[in-house]
Write a structure and sequence with these properties.
15 helices, binds pyridoxal-5'-phosphate, 369 residues
């Protein structure tokens, strides 16, 4: 009996993307097996983390790596690592940062809310977020101005749907941090297909979710400078105790990364494009719907489907349509675009053809009267 049957849980078709309130992603059989096997055995966790570092290096080209509880934990731990290094006194003192440089600079447009404010991840370590520039733009000069006072690190965000304002050239931002003697941390939670490119910016630490497009269990990957990675690991004797990776998290994340070794990106990209094109072709015939294919803004290799709703011919606005989709059985979750209120955005990456068919017939049953 499935958990849905056992507990009477809502069945969901998730076209909302790698969304935490819906359980994020679907794992492959390899990942499921790795997690299951890990659960019934013991491991020397230090050895498991050393192995993780080696496997992450082999598979991504990073100089070192570690697994932490999730990306959110990774942000707090990376910030902590830049403040304490390996000093056990400082590690045990956090979040009390007396005597430490504790300001973390981030461009104002990167101070996003991904379900909670990202600046809270900084504060959890005891650090103080300092926003550089303005929400609609932060120049490299403005970023550097904020770096000229006492500070611990620079945090940059790469995200398709969250960052606001003009995009900041990452390589230049990382170089500015280095000119001021600051380590640069990049939160690229959903950017696991662009690890090479983000490491090439010269960032000292790159944080990537193991559970978003990598589709592993809840875990976060920390990649980069061996000393800083060691300082991240060392936080387990301090605030990192509540942010530790589990054995099944580590082994599941490694299985997910290993799956990527044989990954044919061109073929995958092509399949995602076809899936969205086909969906858009059908959805565009519905009354009040203008459908289009929207490439990912951050450069992830898949598009999303955009359905602009004309309330007059659809008989309802986009927000009501989103609610009606959600209220049905199974419950269908789509995004409502933040920029243009009248647009539904659907991410089809984890969905089977049958589920996409259910979305199309539900849209038809709501809109065609
Ligand atoms: C999802 C996300 C996070 C948090 O990731 P978790 O692994 O769920 O903690 C952090 N930053 C950004 C930009 C995200 O999109």
């Amino acid at each position: 009996m499935s958990a849905h049957e056992l507990y009477g849980l809502t069945r969901v078709i998730n076209a909302h993307g790698t969304y935490t309130p819906l359980g994020v992603s679907r794992s492959t059989e390899n990942v499921r097996r790795a997690v299951c096997e890990a659960l019934s055995d013991f491991f020397v966790i230090e050895e498991l983390q050393a192995t993780a570092s080696r496997v992450i290096s082999e598979l991504t080209g990073a100089r070192a790596g570690a697994v932490v509880h999730c990306t959110s934990a990774g942000i707090s731990l990376a910030v902590a690592a830049t403040m304490t290094g390996l000093s056990i006194e400082m590690i045990r003192a956090l979040p009390d940062t007396a005597g430490m440089s504790n300001r973390v600079i981030l461009p104002a447009g990167h101070a996003v809310d991904y379900g909670h404010p990202i600046v809270q991840d900084i504060r959890l370590a005891g650090a103080r977020p300092v926003l550089a520039g303005f929400e609609d733009a932060c120049s490299i000069d403005q970023l550097e101005e904020s770096m000229s006072v006492d500070r611990a690190a620079c945090l940059l965000l790469v995200s398709s749907r969250l960052t606001r304002g003009e995009s900041i050239p990452m390589r230049e931002a990382v170089s500015s941090a280095h000119r001021h003697g600051l380590p640069a941390i990049i939160d690229g939670a959903a950017q696991d297909m662009r690890i090479d490119e983000l490491l090439a910016t010269g960032a000292d630490l790159l944080l990537v979710s193991a559970q978003k497009y990598l589709a592993g269990p809840p875990a976060g990957l920390v990649l980069g400078d061996p000393e800083l990675v060691a300082a991240v690991r060392a936080q387990e004797k301090g605030i990192g105790r509540s942010m530790k990776a589990t054995k099944e998290g580590i082994l599941g994340a490694l299985a997910a990364l290993t799956d990527r070794k044989d990954f044919d990106l061109a073929d995958w990209r092509n399949r995602q494009e076809q899936k969205v094109l086909e969906f858009v072709r059908h959805a565009g015939r519905l009354p009040g719907v203008s459908a289009s294919v929207d490439p990912d803004k951050a450069g992830m290799p898949f598009p999303r489907a955009c359905l602009a709703i004309d309330p007059t011919s659809a008989g309802m606005d986009a927000a009501s349509l989103v609610e009606k989709l959600r209220a049905g059985e199974p419950s269908i979750w789509v995004m409502l675009s933040g920029d243009t209120q009248g647009t539904l955005v659907l991410e089809l990456v984890p969905l089977e053809a049958e589920e996409i068919g259910i979305i199309l017939s539900r849209l038809a049953s709501i809109l065609v009267r």
